[in-house]
Amino acid sequence: MPDPPLTPFGEQQCRDLCDRFPFHSSIGLLVSSPLRRTIQTTLHAFEPEVSRGVKYFALPEVQETSDLPCDTGSNLSVLKEDFGNRPVDLSLIPEDWDTKKGKWAADHVAVEARCREARRWLKSRDEEHVVVVSHGGLLHYLTEDWTGSGKFQGTRRPFLRRVRKMLFPNAYDPWYTGTGWENVEFRSYHFVEGDEGNASLEETEESRRRRSEKPLTKEEKTQLRETVTKDGGEPLEI
């Protein structure tokens, strides 16, 4: 299904997140992927921020990683029709954002470049605390944090993936979650000092404690990234 909306259960998950999110009063900016489900997630889960007029941008650089229909956004004209009367700024979305070509391609090189651009944009903002609502696979690239990526296993093994592709080129793989992030999970990150070019992020100590996660070393992060992205520029399936 192209660019599906949230289900009623998804809407309830967002309301539950709204109730347990402890930082509503400090948020100065909302940002989300322009897919329907992430826009709806932001409007439901961060309703207190929306109600008090916090600026909210849909940022195409943090869209889904794959080019499956369910991960491909709607045309800008459709988004304007669906959300034109809602408090979400669509001005950063170009006409070609949903083509999955060029800058928007579903391959590792393009996704990494988009995420680097998104981090630089976020770092350039004046707001101290920003919420980014995106997708599990994309968030690994945005944060450059591959903890929990054991969930990337399953048919990601090259031989089985190629067999599955030949036999069922459009089939969904139910054993391959594509992310170490849970639904409506939230984590906190800050920018690394002195890294202006890449605008690297690092998870806060409080966030790691909240999910009982031991921080990885730089070498461990590199190894995890190489494991998950070892197919190079091949289209993503996460």
How would you describe this protein?
The chain has 238 residues and is mainly alpha-helical. Helices cover 37% and strands 8% of the residues. It contains nine helices and five strands; from the N terminus they run αβααβααβααββαα. The protein has helices spanning 8-20, 36-45, 47-51, 76-83, 108-124, 136-143, 158-167, 205-210, 218-228, and strands at residues 29-32, 55-58, 130-133, 189-191, 201-203. The chain has a three-stranded parallel beta sheet with strand order 2-1-3, covered by helices on one side. Helix 1 (8-20) crosses helix 2 (36-45) and helix 5 packs across helix 6 (136-143). The longest helix has 17 residues, at 108-124. It is globular. The two termini are 17 Å apart.
Radius of gyration: 17 Å
Low-confidence stretches: 152-156, 171-176
Most strands sheet: 3 strands, parallel
The computed structural class is: mainly alpha
Percentage of residues in strands: 5-15%
Task: Count every helix, treating DSSP H or I runs of 4 or more residues as helices.
Answer: 9
The best one-word shape is globular
Question: How far is the N terminus from the C terminus?
Answer: 17 Å
Mean pLDDT: 86
* Number of β-strand runs: 5
Looking across the biggest beta sheet, what order are the strands in? 2-1-3
From N to C, what is the helix and strand string? HEHHEHHEHHEEHH
Q: Which range best describes the helical content: under 10%, 10-25%, 25-40%, 40-55%, 55-70% or over 70%? A: 25-40%
